[in-house]
């Protein structure tokens, strides 16, 4: 009778362990999708806020049309964030930082604009969105790292290989954002370097 109990326990373990590992991998993969959704939600808010910022600044700096055209072009004629493809979302995200820095540099030339309640509110909102986006990206990278560890370590790597689980990609900081910003170039002159 004891050998049957041991045999039943071993069989149960041989079935339960792979099922448990598989379910853990699925939960982690779903966590990645959830974290990506959080990033998309913040990017959508930023996308929707862009026209308000452009309109507010246009009132003060009507002759800066080239800059506005560049910032508006980030939306690529789309009315909603959901219309963008994954590649367009990535292009919008990477181009937004550069466009926004140029946008704020122009705003420096307009003291009335910088003091405008609308502009200040939009600037605060964008800063909050950027902080939320940064936090969402950190969460995403943590979830992907946890998933990658589960996919690559034994014994879960065996189950992952059998069922086609592949490592995920962590988000990386673009090269232009890794360096120290040149504040003098940001404002189009060398005021910061003058003695």
Written account of the structure:
Mean pLDDT is 80; it is low at 186-195. The N and C termini lie far apart (92 Å). The chain is 74% helix and 0% strand. The protein contains 8 helices and no strands. With 195 residues, the chain is mainly alpha-helical. The radius of gyration is 25 Å and the shape is rod-shaped.
Question: Which characteristics define this entry?
Answer:
8 helices, disordered C terminus, 195 residues
Explain the layout of strands and helices.
Blueprint: H1 2-58, H2 65-73, H3 86-107, H4 111-115, H5 117-152, H6 156-162, H7 175-178, H8 183-186
Helix pairs in contact: 1-2, 1-5, 2-3
Helix fraction by DSSP (H/I, runs of at least 4): over 70%
The coarse overall form would be rod-shaped
Classify the beta-strand content into a percent band: under 5%
Number of β-strand runs: 0
Name the structural class: mainly alpha
Distance between termini? 92 Å
Rounded Rg: 25 Å
Question: Helix-strand pattern, N to C?
Answer: HHHHHHHH
On the 0 to 100 scale, the average pLDDT is 80
Which consecutive residue ranges, at least 5 long each, have pLDDT under 50? 186-195
Q: Biggest sheet, in brief?
A: none
Number of helices: 8
